[in-house]
Amino acid sequence: MVFGRLKKNKQDEAAAGPADGQAADAGDAVKADAGTEVVSAAFIRDSGPFDSAEKEALDGYIDLGALRIGAAEGLQLRLEVEEKTKRVIAVTLDLNGSTLQLQAFAAPRTGGIWDDIREQIGRSVGSQGGTVEEKSGTFGTELMAKLPAQLPDGQPGHRVARFVGVDGPRWFLRGVFGGRAAIDANNAAPVEALFRSVVVVRGDHPLPPRELLPLRLPKDAQTTPPPQAPARPDLNPLERGPEITEIR
Predict the structure, then answer these.
(1) What is the pLDDT of residues 12-33, one digit of tens each?
(2) 144-196 confidence digits (pLDDT tens)
């Protein structure tokens, strides 16, 4: 297992939209008139992602603090580090030409936050000239975001990012599928299996809703320099504002 570390310049990007690799690179951009289809199925969290209280053993999982990631052949992990504070703010999984960015946040006891987050993502994408479409997908209601991009041949196209969100007990897990997994159901299947296998370790300490749950580099992990980050949209759907005061 190889770990990369990618530095971020500001805390707002902790909750950004498709980070490094999440919106497809220019080489992965698709024609602006191409259709995208996600298999529709009822989502039941009994099959994952899981709360740590729902898992009796975590042997074989990669310990990243608030997240436990199931190991898979060919899987690479990049931990995104906020440059100012040096804290890990996200993890991106790379598997067979697809990516999955994961972030876990504190949430209220009384209800989930995914409905509100989808609206914020839509506004942010729209402000950048992109579009979003709500779909009933593998993990319930999902968002397909498309932002303007130039294809390698110079023709106009778009970059695609598939947003999924799962509300758990006092936590919210957001995933952003990029690359092949964002535009093809067959390529998405193994990455979706990774997402289902994720275990969230919320902890008992009080945190305001939308606060990032702490991540960390695993012990004895090998690290490699991060690749050059492609240009990406600046989406901040989970930025916590001063109006949020509830602590659970």
Answers:
(1) 333 334 333 333 333 344 443 3
(2) 999 888 888 888 888 899 999 999 999 999 999 999 999 999 999 999 999 99
* Token pair of 133 as six digits: 């479409």
CB 60 within 8 A of CB 71: yes
Q: Under a CB-based contact definition with an 8 Å cutoff, are residues 178 and 90 in contact? A: no
Identify the helix (H) or strand (E) that includes residue 165: strand 156-168
- Beta bridge mates, 51: 200
Domain boundaries, the chain: 2-219
Q: Comparing C-alpha atoms, which of 147, 133, 132 is closest to residue 234?
A: 147
CB 119 within 8 A of CB 134: no
In contact, 169 and 140? CB cutoff 8 Å: no
Token pair for 207: 């945190």
Q: Which of 158, 171, 40 is nearest to 112 (CA)?
A: 171
